[in-house]
Amino acid sequence: MIRNQPQRTRPSVGRRAPGAAVLIVLMGCMGLAFGGCTLERVDGNGGSAASEPDFATQVESLLNVQAAAWNGGDLEGFMSGYSPSPTTTYFGSGGLIEGYDAIRERYAPDFEAGATRDSLRFEALQAREVDTRVGVATARYVLERDGTVTSTGPFTLVLLNVEGVWMIVHDQSAEDAGS
After folding, report:
1. What is the pLDDT of residues 34-72, one digit of tens each?
2. Which of 22, 55, 112, 159 has the most Cβ atoms closer than 10 angstroms to its Cβ?
3. Quick one: average pLDDT of 103-126?
4. Pairing state of beta strands 165-173 and 89-92?
5. Bridge partners (DSSP) listed for residue 167
6. Nearest by Cα to 105 from 85, 83, 79
C-alpha cells in the first residue's frame, strides 16, 4: 500500500466538482455531434410539425374553403379564414376596415338572399412563412359570371398561426384597372 499519495476528497452529494459543468456541456455537444441526434420542429401542442402540411399548402386549403363558401353563399364559411379579432383588418378600394365584425358587415350584402354574387377563384398563390407564427401570401382573385371575368386583382394576406391554424389577420386587396 502506498501511503505517500495525497488523499483526494470527494464532493458531497448534490454538489459538483469544479469543472463538472464544463464537462457536462462538452459531453452534450459531443453527443449532438457524434450521436446522430436531430432537432425536430414541434407544433404548439408539442406534436411533430413535420407531419403538418407546409405553409403554402395550408394557405391554399384556406383559400379553397373560402372560394367554395363564397360560391355556395355561405358567409360564415367564407369568414372562417379571418381571425375573429377586433384587430383583424381589411384594406380595399373603400379604405381600411378594422375588426372581424366590420369585415363581416362589408361582405354580408353579397350573401343576402337574391344578391348577385359572381363565382370566385384564386390564382398565382405565393406563400412565405416568415416564422412559425407569421406568414405572408399573395395571389389574385378572379370573379366570373357566365364565363366572363367581371373583376380581378391582386391581394396580400398576413396570416397568424393560432394554435396550429393559420388565420388571416390582414387582407389588402386591389382591383385591376378596367375590371
Report:
1. 343 333 444 555 555 555 578 999 999 999 999 999 999
2. 159
3. 93
4. parallel
5. 160
6. 79
pLDDT band at 154 (very low <50, low <70, confident <90, very high): very high
Contact at 8 Å (CB) between 168 and 99? no
Query: What are 122's strand-pairing partners?
Result: 141
Rounded distance, CA 47 to CA 69, Å? 30
What is the pLDDT, as a whole number, of residue 50? 52
Q: What does the block give as the cell for 38?
A: 436531430
Name the pLDDT band for 113 (thresholds 50, 70, 90): confident
**Residues contacting 144, CB < 8 A, separation 6+:** 118, 119, 121, 150
Continuous segment of H or E residues that includes residue 103: helix 100-107
Distance CA 151, CA 92 (A): 13
Q: Residue with C-alpha cell 364565363?
A: 147
HEC profile for 27-51? HHHHHHHHCCCCCCCECCCCCEHHH
pLDDT digits (tens, 9 = 90+) for 32-42: 333 433 334 44
Strand partners, 161: 166
Query: By the 8 A CB rule, do 124 and 141 touch?
Result: no
- The grid coordinates of residue 74 equal 355561405
